[in-house]
Amino acid sequence: SSRKGIVLEVGYGMGISARYIQAHRPTLHIVVEANKDVFKKLLEFAATASVPVEPLFGFWQENTREAIADESVSGILFDTYPLHEEEIHQNHFPFFKEAYRMLKPGGVLTYYSDEISDFSVTHLQALHDAGFTHIEKRVCEVLPPKDCAYWKSKTIVAPIITK
């Protein structure tokens, strides 16, 4: 949201990030969500949002190519849930090339990284293969609940990837 303009959020989830994005007043907030029940909540959110929200139902692979023009997005938050065993710890990698296509020069991509304190070699290679060269991070302290199924560490890498 730091670049204003159009912000794309892939994965609405509980709507926590959406509220933060809205607080930064983008000109348009596009949200892609594939879960039918969660999408209903997204529609309710969109109806009362302070900034226009464009909800897109389905997976990003079905939506972004047709709905979002090249170099039209100022910021992207990608936070989806892996659907297959082979996607665990790398479900964001296939999205990097599409993110690069959609981002304006100077636009920022961030996502749930699955990294504790630094990018793995494989992770960096996926970013470079997509075209990204300006790769930064912030290591954030987090306190996941003891019963959290997907994160146990006390830190996580917050990627700051700029086109």
Distinctive features:
globular; 163 residues; 7 strands; alpha/beta; 5 helices; seven-stranded mixed beta sheet
Describe the structure.
The chain is of the alpha/beta class and 163 residues long. 29% of the residues lie in helices and 29% in strands. The chain has five helices and seven strands; from the N terminus they run βαβαβαβαβαββ. Strands 3-2-1-4-5-7-6 form a seven-stranded mixed beta sheet, with helices on both faces. Helix 4 runs parallel beside helix 5. The chain is globular, with a radius of gyration of 15 Å. The protein starts with 5 loop residues before the first strand and ends with a strand.
Strand content: 25-35%
**Radius of gyration over alpha carbons?**
15 Å
> Which class do the helix and strand fractions yield?
alpha/beta
Total count of helical runs of at least 4 residues: 5
Shape by Cα distribution: globular
State the major sheet. Answer: 7 strands, mixed
Straight-line N-to-C gap = 14 Å
Compute the average pLDDT: 92
Count the beta strands.
Answer: 7
**Which stretches are poorly predicted, pLDDT < 50 over at least 5 residues?**
none
Strand adjacency order, main sheet? 3-2-1-4-5-7-6
Share of helix, binned: 25-40%
What's the SSE pattern? Answer: EHEHEHEHEHEE
